[in-house]
Amino acid sequence: MLARTRTLARTLLHARSCCIQKKSLTGYPPHLVDAHGDVPAGDFCLIENFLSKEEQFLLLTAALRKLDANETVTYRKRRKTAQVTHDPSSENLLSAFHSDEFYRFENGHYDGVIRHYREMHVTAWPLVTDIESQDITLDGILRKLLNFFPVDPVQTHILHLASEGEILPHVDNTSASGTYILGVSLGATRMMRVESVDSGHGSFDVLLPSGSVYVQKDLVRYGYRHAILKNGTFKGIPVAGGPRLSVMMRDMLSTNITDNRSSLRPDR
Ligand SMILES: O=C(O)CCC(=O)C(=O)O
Ligand SMILES: [Fe+2]
């Protein structure tokens, strides 16, 4: 591990669940969902503005630092010569990203599901004390997310999509994680398409603004594919691409569950 990326051990394994928060894991703002069929609302939840602008900037910075530390010296040097100057209270988080050529994006996931991205698992987050305040800390943000996550333990993953990056339709690997998938969206507003595996229940499009958090579980997690579109049209309005980083939290697979879902072969 590079000296510059001294890490704080922040164990993510002991989040406490809370039944009051569990109850709130349903529902979504109708203006952010465009349904073409049923929306299994009990198994999908979206919260707009879950994180404030300042919290978004802090979490994004931590995630970018984590990914950046993994890159070659060439890219790190390249970024050093072009510092981003982002105002944390600004409405627009996009200025917190470098432009695409400053990152070493992978062109395609090994199974072809993700295009133009960087990703990694996170067990320890980098220090961001230089941008933390008394009120807003990375620990505080992670606690807020973990308190919202219905079960523990949790595995965390960060995924940075280039402006033209996209995620093709897939069901998350059913042998890699459990029932819940939580996604925090940071950066460009992208469209997520959620479509029934057997097409019997249609599909729904979800607009994912920066700072929003979604949770898919049970029927949506296993019976629907999800995709993050490069661009698209939402309720008649064009949604362009743009850089986006998501922080994904998933529960560990419970080996006690009798797996009758193997027919839903995961694509990812
Ligand atoms: O970025 C997102 O919101 C979704 C990511 C995703 O589908 C995945 O990592 O499997
Ligand atoms: Fe996924």
- The tally of strands reads 15
Here the CATH topology equals Jelly Rolls
Catalogue the ligands: 2-oxoglutaric acid, fe (ii) ion
Instruction: Domain count, please report it.
Output: 1
Determine the strand fraction and express it as a percent band.
25-35%
Distance between the termini: 29 Å
Mean pLDDT: 85
Low-confidence region ranges: 1-23, 256-267
* Silhouette: globular
Overview of this protein structure:
With about 270 residues, the chain is α+β, with helices and mostly antiparallel strands. The protein has a single domain, classed as Jelly Rolls (Sandwich). Helix content is about 15%, strand content about 35%. The chain contains five helices and 15 strands. It has helices spanning about 20-25, 55-70, 75-80, 140-150, 220-225, and strands at about 5-10, 35, 45, 105-110, 115-120, 125, 155-170, 180-185, 190-195, 200-210, 215, 225-230, 230-235, 235-240, 245-250. The strands form three sheets. Strands 2, 3, 4, 5, 7, 8, 9, 10, 11, 12 and 15 form an eleven-stranded antiparallel beta sheet that branches. Strands 1-6 form a two-stranded antiparallel ribbon. A hairpin with a 2-residue loop joins strand 13 (about 230-235) and strand 14 (about 235-240). The longest helix has 16 residues, at about 55-70. It is globular, with a radius of gyration of 18 Å. The model is unreliable at about 1-25 and about 255-265 (pLDDT under 50). Bound molecules: 2-oxoglutaric acid and fe (ii) ion. The site of fe (ii) ion has 4 residues, from loops.
Q: What keywords describe this structure?
A:
268 residues, alpha+beta, Jelly Rolls, 11-stranded antiparallel β-sheet, two-stranded antiparallel sheet, 5 helices, globular, disordered N terminus, disordered C terminus, binds 2-oxoglutaric acid, binds fe (ii) ion, Oxoglu/Fe-dep_dioxygenase_dom
